Amino acid sequence: MNGLESVLLFSLVVTPFLGAAVLAFFPADNHKLIHWYTRIIAASGLAIAAYLFITFDTGDSLNKYIVDFDWLPSLGIRFTLGLSGITVPLVLLNAIIFFGGVLISWNVDHRPKDFFVWLMLLVAGVYGVFASRDLFFLFFFYELAVVPMYLLVGVWGSSTDFGTFLRTKEYGAMKVMLVLVAGSVLVWIAILAMWVEAREITGIADFGMAGLSQVEFSEGFQKTYYPFLMIGFGILAGLWPFHTWSPDGHVAAPTAVSMLHAGVLMKLGAFGILAVGMVLLPDGARFWAPLLIGLGTVNVIYGAISAMGQKDLKYIIGYSSVSHMGYVLMGLGALDTLAVDGAVLQMFSHGIMTALFFAMVGVIYQRTHIRDITILAGLGKKMGITGVFLAVAGLTSLGLPGFSSFVAEIMIFIGTYRTYPVVGVLAVVGAAITAVYILRMLGAVFFGPIDENKWKDLTDANKTETGVAALLTGFLLLWGLYPFRIVEIIDSGVVPIMERLGS
Amino acid sequence: MMEWAWLIPAMPAIAFFFLATAGRCLPNWSAIAATGTMAVAFIVFWFVLADWFSMSALPEVKAFGFSFDWIKAGGSTFTWGMVIDPISLVMVGLVTAAALGIQIYTWSYMSHEPRFTWFFAVHSLFAAAMLALVLADNLLLLYIAWELVGICSYLLIGFFYDRRPAAEAAKKAFITTRIGDVGLLIGILLLFAKTGTFELSAIFTMVENGGISETVITAAAVLLFLGAIGKSAQFPLHVWLPDAMEGPTPVSALVHSATMVVAGVYLVARMFPFYEHSESAALMVTLIGAFTAVGAAAIALVVTDIKRILAYSTLTDLGFMLFALGAGGLTAGMFHLLIHGFSKAILFLGAGSISHGSGQTDIRQMGGLWRKMPITAVIFGIGALSLGGVPPFGGFFSKDEVITAVFDGRGWGFMAIALLIGFMKALYMGRVFFAVFLGKLKPENEHAHESSMVMLAPMLVFALLALFGGFLALSYTDGYQGFGYFVFEGTHQHPFHLNKGIAIGSIALAVSGFILAWMAYVQGSLKTEPIIKRFSGVHRVLINKYYVDEVYQWVIDKVVLVFGRFIAFFDRAFINDIGINGTGSIVTTTGRFMRYVQSGKLYTYAMGMIVGFLGLALAWWVS
Amino acid sequence: MDASAVAFSFLAVMVIGGALGVVVTRNVAHAALFLLLSLASVGGVFILLVAEFLALVQILIYGGAITIVLLFALMLTRAEEFTNVRDNPQWAVAAVAALSIFGVLGGVILNNKLDTQELAGPSLEELGTELFTNWVIPFEIASLVLLVALIGAIILARAADGDDGQPSDAQDPSSLTDTDGTPGGRS
Amino acid sequence: MELYHVELLSAALFAIGIYGVLARRNSVLILISIELMLNAVNINAVAYSAFLDPGRLVGQVITIFVITVAAAEVGLAMAIILRLYRTMSTANADEADSMKW
Q1: Quick check: B613 contacting A, CB < 8 Å?
Q2: How far apart are alpha carbons B130 and B150 in whole angstroms?
Q3: Contact (Cβ atoms closer than 8 angstroms) between residue B336 and residue B400
Q4: Is B82 in a helix, a strand, or coil?
Q5: How many CA atoms lie within 13 A of A369 on its CB side?
Q6: Domain residues of chain C, as ranges?
Q7: Torsion over CA of B455, B461, B462 and B463, rounded to 10 degrees?
Q8: Contact B245, B237 (CB under 8 A)
Q9: CA distance to A32, A115, A116, per residue, from A29 (Å)
Q10: ipTM given for this complex
């Protein structure tokens, strides 16, 4: 470990861990102390991530700020952290959403201590996945990020009766947990296979990604094991047809967990495909790219049409996440530098955007206890601020220029169009369908006459909630209007991968 | 001064950000901030224009632009830059003037509205987006501005969001235009894939020297035109424009005159080299333009809501412009766009003034209003005569240019259609003017009153422009040899020329159109009821706008949404309940059977041990 | 056939017979007595194998202590079904399994006859020396095991607070009438 | 008397013990059957010691430990059976199955 940045990176990953450990000894009934403590932890993470992002040097080396400790030398396991151009924005994303999620959880008063302990562990896991340069620890953090979801959804979630079917929080929690663990099993198989194969070839036991990326795996091996990574990580990214855990998880999850779930957790999957699959198994990635882009296209169109048929706000946004993650998968599958750049930016942008969505839906649900858009109407009269921010998220979602999603999507469109024109066309069509369901949702919830008697005591978003929404909107606008810097950073991470892929 | 041209779109954009963030705190400043910035933009425009003329000594200097890097990734650099050439100058002039005038008008018209600030904020953004659209030197920035224009129209049409029709109209406008945008974006992507750049000048160079194949040019031209169809409300994506009346009147004025709808025409004009190089695409533009113009003019003759008549007249005029562009008449199309912009601004502001003063929107409830609102009547009359194509009003010159261009480009048959459109324009313009202002004053309109000077002043300015704008076509000095020398493509300088036969014919048709309208709605010698009775079927079809809306509504309700619900159901019932839950059920069912192994009875476990041992022994023996 | 062979045959019959008696009798008390017979015969086998000390220990501990403990426990529980226990339904399978085991073991034994030395055994002195020198630590640990087992048995068998030593009502109220107070349950 | 005679005796005793464990329901009888199996092992240990081990000691020492542990086991097992009988009013091993599934 050397240099200020390395120390900061290490502390970024470790802080939520220690924070959770320390929080476990707090008095459980002092809610105010617990909230403020968590806010400080989250804010410090945000500060570190912002510093790392701002000072990030897009120069020569791929992985920067290396933190490296021996952990189990006989198996080649090292605790290695490092940042590349791809991960810096994602780490920042995680910090932003964690901070926003903690603030938006001001109203959690059921066992807040336990809630925040699990939330911090989840966040620590996500930081770890993004920063790990060692597959063993990457997998460890990956699991660490998944497991708290079970308790967070199962204990603090909500059950909903949709008339024809029922979605309990227990069901949602179980589903999220089982599906994600199933995905991680596939990932783990592939990781072990690579470890064994690499030891066969080089004679060195090594879980480190830097070492493994130098190994020349045979083409047959790559073609066999890339699908494990693609599907395994893809499940977390909402790859069709393994996507249903995501909307159901959202419906059951509390607001902050939804934000982290769609905002960060789903990004882990796409990040894994890019940073593990495509980096370590380039031949496999090339061979399977048509499948990935095909499933990504299905995600886009299918998710958008499904969202159009939904009535529940969280389902609409859940399926829109499926649709938007489709753009990410599509961009990755195009194997085009511009498209992959766009995919990474879309991860960032979609993370912020869905977080904003869920924050605002949480505000609505907390006040009305309704999420059915056929019942809600005309809320704009009473909840103007909420409406504006939900509209911001919606407009970002449908790819309005000025917000960062547009930048990401246009890059994906260009990249996919010039590799697979038909897919490019379908992607554009998907964006048009998005407009339909987003405007339908906004129109149904906020426009039209309001029932004055029913919503007499309805209040708008309070200062905290407005602040969170403004923070997220600020990032959407910042990189929508001036994407140069973030694209430059992402590009510096993507170009070496693409050079290795030979495209 | 040209290097400051970026101020033109930037000023209203700054106003938007100021009003959107801090506007709540300073409500009284909103109008001043918006109008002030717009005025600055307008002034900058004049300096830029002056600069342009001082530079025009060098004919090869067609454009001046500057740019900055917006994205740099994957070996490509995307820039934001501006192009200043005659087409963009005309558009900037129109947009800044119209936006400024309409904002001043709004001071009075919207003064009672609590969300005054928000209106000015979005209005500013609308203008900024339109200005960026017309100044963009590359397709990416053009698309960005294009989308922003769309979203502003959504916000403004849906300004009265608590009224369900307004919300629905806004949604319809955005989604309909968005469908066209799919084509536009695909066209842009196609061009980028083939040329590797978004820069207009680079693309045009490749078009000129054959760097792009004919097929790609045609495909791109058609795809780009899809975008224009959406934005300029051409058939079959025209349905949103009449409904857009749900927005406040100043919005309608802005949408119909200078922003939004003319964006499509501008796009075709801007991409004109494509249509020059692709005869089939140009023919498509002509046909769609002509078809829309005739169809919409027929509807304009029967509907009775004043704003709807004006809306269908806009459709007609937009079709008319595209008609000209498709026939190769860039100058004519742009000129008509300019004159139409001023005239239509008057008509809409006038209509707003009428409904503001009398509370009526249906022309059957009006009549004789000139006694109560004489200034409005005069101004509205100028607009109607101009669009009706009566000399010496501006509309006459531009209409004549269009018909001449059509004749030159497409021959007699199309010229006849153009003349027919000209006649219908005169007829419905006469109808709306006479029915509203002449005739007997109805008793319920006794309380009608003239609007305030704040509203009338901008109308007066536009009236003067509509009145004398036509003379822009003529040549005066070496520096300005007429509109046709100013706006042209390639080497086809197009001086204003009067084809005497066509001019006489069009004047005769225009005047007869007004006379017919006068007979029908003032003098009464021509009865409309018998005609309606005689052609009741046609009338019903026209009143119902050819049932296009109904068909679309049916498709949306019965196909799109049903399909969406089906997919949602499919996802839940099949993918989830069978696919995902099914996997879970297989595991739990297996477990439910397997658990009987766990009997709780000691002797079965012991038996398991023994059987296991025997099995091992057997295996050992076998091996 | 020499004397030791005759004695071994006789003892073997006694061991097997006693064991079979243990597993077929329906009365638990009889089973305990058959066990005594079988184990005592095993003690006899030990004598034939020149392990006199073990034979003594076998008869004292098994014959004396263990069988007595079993009989005491049976008396303390005094379930009437103990005089007529039924085997479980898988007894036939169990018989096959047991025969199979015997077959496997017998096969292995007969196919692997080991080279034996002359039959001999250590003297009692040797055994004692060995136990208290080389094996002293395991020996002491074994005594600890016994102690712990003893304490554990006492704790398990004594009635908990509020437990009157009767079968609890919740499980089977009818059994209350079958058993009376068991003073042995309280320590 | 050869070694394999003793081994066969031991195997028979072991098999009978297994039968008892598998076929009996009463936990006391299962316990007794286990004692039979332990004795089979003891016979083997002593026999090997007598026939094979040059020092002739280890088998007997082992047997002493087995007997010790068996004594401890019986004591504990009987206590458990008593306890079981008191709480579930049965001494049958298959009726105490509340921890299944």
Answers
A1: no
A2: 10
A3: no
A4: strand
A5: 4
A6: 1-85, 122-164+183-187
A7: 100
A8: no
A9: 9, 13, 13
A10: 0.74
Which residue carries 């061009």 as its tokens?
Answer: B191
Look up residue B555 and give its DSSP letter: I
Check whether domain C1-85 has CATH 1.10.10.60, yes or no? no
Q: Would you call B185 and A428 a contact, using CB atoms and an 8 Å cutoff?
A: yes
Q: Which two tokens stand for residue C103?
A: 């077959």
For B253-322, the DSSP string reads HHHHHTSTHHHHHHHHHHTHHHHHH-HHHHHHHHHHHHHHHHHHHHHHTT--BHHHHHHHHHHHHHHHHH
Question: Is residue B2 scored above 80 in pLDDT?
Answer: no
B535-B517-B426 Cα angle (round to 5): 100
What are the chain D neighbours of B600 within 8 Å (beta carbons)? 94, 96-101
Question: Does chain D touch chain C (at least 3 C-beta pairs within 8 Å)?
Answer: yes
Contact A489, A482 (CB under 8 A): no
CB contact under 8 A, C90 and B604: yes
Q: Identify any residues that bridge with B71 across adjacent strands, giving them in sequence order.
A: B78
- Average pLDDT, whole number, for chain C? 80
If you average pLDDT over residues B613-619, what whole number do you get?
90
Peptide bond into B392 cis (omega under 30): yes
Residue C170: burial class (beta carbons within 10 Å; 0-12, 13-18, 19+): exposed
Contact A108, A119 (CB under 8 A): no
Asked if residues A126 and A264 have their Cβ atoms less than 8 Å apart, the reply is yes
- Compute CA B412 distance to the chain's CA centroid, rounded to the nearest angstrom: 30
- Residue A347: phi and psi, rounded to 5, are -55, -50
In angstroms, the CA B416 to CA B418 distance is 5
Q: Give the number of other CB atoms < 10 A from CB of residue B339.
A: 29
Radius of gyration in angstroms for the set of CA atoms belonging to chain A, rounded to a whole number: 21
The reported pTM is 0.82
Mean pLDDT of B553-569: 87
Are B400 and B503 contacting, i.e. CB atoms less than 8 angstroms apart? yes
Residues 6+ apart with CB under 8 A from B339: B386, B394, B395, B397, B398, B466, B469, B470
Looking at every residue in chain A, the average pLDDT score rounds to 88
* Residues B73, A450: C-beta atoms closer than 8 Å: no
Backbone angles phi, psi at B129, to 5 degrees: -65, -40
Instruction: Enter the tokens of residue C99.
Output: 């025969």
Matching residue, tokens 């082992």: D62
Contact B603 C104 (CB under 8 A): no
CA pair distance B219, B194, nearest whole angstrom: 12
Name beta bridge partners: C87.
D24
| DSSP letter, residue B20 | H
How large is the angle between the packed helices B86-109 and B7-22, nearest 10 degrees? 30
Task: Give the model's pLDDT for residue C102.
Answer: 92
Strand, helix or coil for residue B361: coil
In this structure, the number of other CB atoms found within 10 A of the CB of residue A67 comes to 24
Instruction: Tell if the CB–CB gap between D100 and B599 is shorter than 8 Å.
Output: yes
Closest CA–CA distance from residue A284 to any residue of chain B (Å): 22
pLDDT for the residue A210: 84
State CA C1 to chain mean position distance: 32
C60-94 pLDDT, tens digit per residue, is 888 888 888 888 877 777 666 677 777 778 888 88
Q: Using CA atoms, how far apart are residues B195 and C159, in angstroms rounded to an integer?
A: 93
CA nearest neighbour of A334 among A408, A423, A398? A423
Say if residues B239 and B148 touch (Cβ distance below 8 Å): no
Q: With beta carbons less than 8 A apart as the criterion, state whether B383 and B467 touch.
A: no
Break chain D into its structural domains and give their ranges: 3-88
Structural domain spans, chain B? 162-545, 549-622
* Number of residues that make up chain D: 101
Q: How far apart are CA A458 and CA A25, in angstroms?
A: 38
Instruction: Compute the nearest-CA separation of B614 from chain D (Å).
Output: 12
Q: Enter the CATH code of domain D3-88.
A: 1.10.287.3510
User: What residues are paired with A78 via a beta bridge?
Assistant: A70
In chain D, which residue's Cα lies nearest the Cα of B601?
D94
Rounded to whole angstroms, the Cα distance separating B541 from B559 reads 24
